[in-house]
Amino acid sequence: MTAKSLTPPVVPESSAPTPQRMRQALGAFATGVTVVTGLAPDGEPVGFACQSFASVSLTPPLVLFCADHRGRAWPRIRESGRFTVNVLGAEQSDLCGRFGSGKGLKYEGLDWELSPWGTPSLPGVLTRIHAEVHDVRGAGDHDVVTGRVLGLEPVADGRPMVFFRGGFDVASPGVAAAPGPWGWGDRWG
């Protein structure tokens, strides 16, 4: 049997892939949480929370993340050409809140440093992956970004922040934590 000979299935309306059903179904896949940071060409630090991050290749060293191309931070990071993926620890809901929203000043009052690669490094994260934009492919309302790793910076030991079924704890699935002052979750990636 070939793919051409297959008849498309009749899909019940109750299983059609609406945005709400996609979020609910894919929420059953637990992911880590990161903050992708960069400097805009004008020197302003920018960043966004991102749970769609993965390793692609060890040789050459490549990673990927997906970013909403309608967001404000990603287009500015893309233009600069370099970024840092800051891997969040379980207790860093404050950083997730700051960078998971389009509201508020993400760096205001935050003790961050400029990395040797010219990108913002966030405090207390588990690790930092410093990279340059290698390839960008459009995919629906997001860009799939492949980055060539320039440096790896382990920072702290600890449990990772995990996003599962709308919350940040796999022990209590389906119970989302209350949003912080930045209203995280309204414009991830």
Number of strands: 11
Query: Hey, roughly how much beta strand do the residues contain?
Result: 25-35%
What would you call the structural class?
Answer: mainly beta
Portion in helices: 10-25%
Mean pLDDT: 85
What number of structural domains do the residues give? 1
CATH architecture: Roll
GO molecular function: oxidoreductase activity
Organism: Streptomyces luteolus
EC number: 1.-.-.-
Domain Flavin reductase like: 26-170
Outline the structure in words.
The protein is mostly beta strands and 189 residues long. The protein has one domain (29-163): Pnp Oxidase, Chain A (Roll). The chain is built from three helices and eleven strands. The strands form three sheets. Strands 3-2-6-9-10-5-4 form a seven-stranded antiparallel beta sheet, with helices on both faces. The longest helix has 8 residues, at 19-26. The protein is globular, with a radius of gyration of 18 Å. The N and C termini lie far apart (40 Å). The relative contact order is 0.22. Mean pLDDT is 85; it is low at 175-189.
